[in-house]
């Protein structure tokens, strides 16, 4: 099982619109394929930049091959859509994590 974590830096003036867009449009589009599951949205508790809000959006995926297939089929389009809607108001980077046994 892999965890896909995308950290977003959102301009404060776009925060409300962006969070609603993520909840109503982005997450349903991601989970519609059932390849990425268990979405979680976190607000990062960082006050270094008051004009920017920080969020982490996480999904679980079975393996790297499944993630790559999803990205080709759906992810590229969603990434482009977010860029079209929010332009430079939202920037993000993705980290892929592999769960380790305890």
Would you kindly provide a written description of the structure presented here, covering whatever features stand out?
The structure is a single chain. This protein is of the alpha+beta class and 102 residues long. It has a single domain, classed as Alpha-Beta Plaits. The chain is built from 2 helices and 4 strands. The protein has a 4-stranded antiparallel sheet with strand order 2-3-1-4, covered by helices on one side. The longest helix is centred in the C-terminal third of the chain and has 23 residues. It is globular. It starts with a strand and ends with a strand. 13% of the residues are buried. The model has no long low-confidence stretch (mean pLDDT 96).
Which secondary structure elements does this structure contain, and how are they paired or packed?
Layout: E1 2-11, H1 15-31, E2 36-43, E3 52-61, H2 64-86, E4 90-98
Antiparallel strand pairs: 1-3, 1-4, 2-3
Helix pairs in contact: 1-2
Supply the key terms:
alpha+beta, 2 helices, Alpha-Beta Plaits, 102 residues, four-stranded antiparallel beta sheet, globular
CATH architect. name: 2-Layer Sandwich
Straight-line N-to-C gap? 14 Å
CATH topology: Alpha-Beta Plaits
Classify the beta-strand content into a percent band: 35-45%
* Proportion in helices: 25-40%
Mean pLDDT across every amino acid position: 96
DSSP summary: helix tally: 2
* Oligomeric category: single chain
What is the β-strand count?
A: 4
Largest sheet: 4 strands, antiparallel
Radius of gyration: 14 Å
Low-confidence stretches: none
Q: Write down the secondary-structure element order.
A: EHEEHE
Structural class based on helices, strands and sheet pairing: alpha+beta
Total number of distinct structural domains: 1
In the sheet with the most strands, the strands line up as 2-3-1-4
Shape: globular
């Amino acid at each position: 099982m892999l965890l896909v974590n995308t950290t977003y830096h959102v301009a404060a003036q776009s925060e409300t619109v962006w969070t609603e867009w993520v909840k109503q449009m982005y997450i349903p589009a991601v989970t519609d394929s059932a390849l990425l599951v268990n979405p979680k949205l976190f607000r990062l508790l960082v006050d270094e930049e008051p004009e920017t809000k920080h969020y982490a959006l996480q999904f679980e995926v079975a393996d790297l091959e499944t993630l790559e297939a999803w990205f080709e089929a759906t992810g590229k389009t969603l990434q482009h859509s977010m860029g079209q809607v929010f332009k430079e108001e939202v920037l993000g980077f993705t980290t892929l994590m592999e769960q380790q046994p305890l």
